[in-house]
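Just scan this pair:

***
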Amino acid sequence: MHFLDGANFPENQPKLVITCAPYGPEWMPSDFPEDIAVTMEQQIQKAVDCYNAGATVLHLHVRELDGKGSKRLSKFNELIAGVRARVPDMIIQVGGSISFAPEGDGETAKWLSDDTRHMLAELTPTPDQVTIAINSNQMNVVEQMVEADIAGTSLAEPAMFHAYREMTIPAGPEWVEEHIRRLSEKGIQTHFQLANITQLETVERMMRRGVCNVPLILTWVAIGGGFDQPNVYNLANFVRGCPDGSVLTLESSMLNVLPLNMMAIAMGLHVRCGIEDNIWTQDRSRKMGTVEQIEQLVRIAGEFGRPVANGQEARAIYKIGTFYKDADETLAANGFAPNRPVLQRAAPQLKVA
């Protein structure tokens, strides 16, 4: 991305898209009973409340009545239908891991099988987006957490801590390419959840081969444990690698969330918040629910002078419903340099109309 003179002026930036992650599948309801929705009606209402507070993208997971994360696609269908009926303009983003959770005490937290994850393309009604990881990777979500982050929660229990510490992401190239193909055929946008710039480079190579003809809508997930540490050097390196046609959201965990989101607001990028990422105020004096986190970001964006996108504006910014016909169109639309023509020795140049 290029930051020309005036790049920090709100009149030169897109409106702010706020993604909310209110379902927090790593927590048990007892960890934050005031905010964790359990019944289907509560889960639908949580989405409505988040939308009314200013969030236009819903990162969606589902709970069973026992409070555990659901792995049943029928439950996802039910929640998607309920949210679509109540807040039709909200962008529904299904977490591609669905419910990464240990099967039993002390077991490693596991994502669903490849075949089951492919079934996300068959959800009815179809979501707007499904998130996808690129390249199999460690996802130790507790690595950069401190004792105060998990004190008094289920993650402080040794077996649960171990389970999430040992979590990995299965995302090999054959599965990724097939998953993107299936999602695209169903009109579902791929939302890339990337740990570092090497994964972004893999996405670019897929686009150059013509196997990933989609907009580059992505989130930089800076949570440590196999992902980037949320510091300004890693952020700058990742942003520099993003082409101008991409749409970038920043994500982190615990007390890193708010500072990173403030950077995103200032830079013209987009934000994500919610109890899946953090449950504390910055001084840890109390827990902070998703709606309050959204309201905080809306207030801060107002201080920056940056308007918050409504549902229709967020859909336009996120290019919902847009797909490309081939590698050339994909590279051009996303702002990458074109593929090198056959026999051309010089570096490829951006095409000028």
